[in-house]
Amino acid sequence: MKKISLYLSAAFLSHSCWADNEWRVIATHATAMGIVLFVNLVFFSILYMSSIIKGKLQRTSLEKQVLDAQFDFLTKMLNRRGFERRFSEKKNLQGYLMIVDIDDFKFINDNYGHDIGDLILREVAARLRSALREEDLVARFGGEEFVIYTSLATKHSALELSQRLVSAVGRDGYSLPATDKQLSVTVSIGVAVIDGSILSTREQEVTQTPAYKIADNNLYKAKNLGKNRAVMN
Fold first, then answer.
1. Catalytic residue among 22, 144, 203, 205
2. Is 144 one of the catalytic residues?
3. Which pLDDT score is estimated for 89?
């Protein structure tokens, strides 16, 4: 009986040692697997966050390109494309369209150089902007031509604004760099009312609308009348 008891005790101890060793192996493997899983989790989390950041950067870059494509680099105001887009987004479109053209700009470029011409364009753009309301649209359409849309309700207020623009541009001279000379610069403006006739042509470019053609014709009249003025039917 004593021998049997000793045998069972020995077997139990032997089994306990085996179980303990086995658990150590299992624990070691479990720890290793946990580390691998953790590393993988961190790695794929980094990849995921990187893809999100990259996507946001790409979208931001694309949005910037789209935005840049709508602005004139020289004057920092809307270009023709930007104006067309915002003009087409206007609801219940009513108001007035103005075409502003710098008088004798070719003479300025030919006699003072393109650097001075660029300076004049920037300054004229700034003066036009300062005379307009925040909600008015103004854009450089190319060369020395600017186009303005205002939602003013009456002919009197539109004509008053156009005369204020003429005055803002021509009132003070334009200082020439490295000299004490000042250059006199003026603009001519053609104004047209935007009425129901334009609403049927919203899909067209602004230059194809009746209002633009009327404003362009009035600009031509302003030039023939001696420049430095606004003309409206």
1. 144
2. yes
3. 82
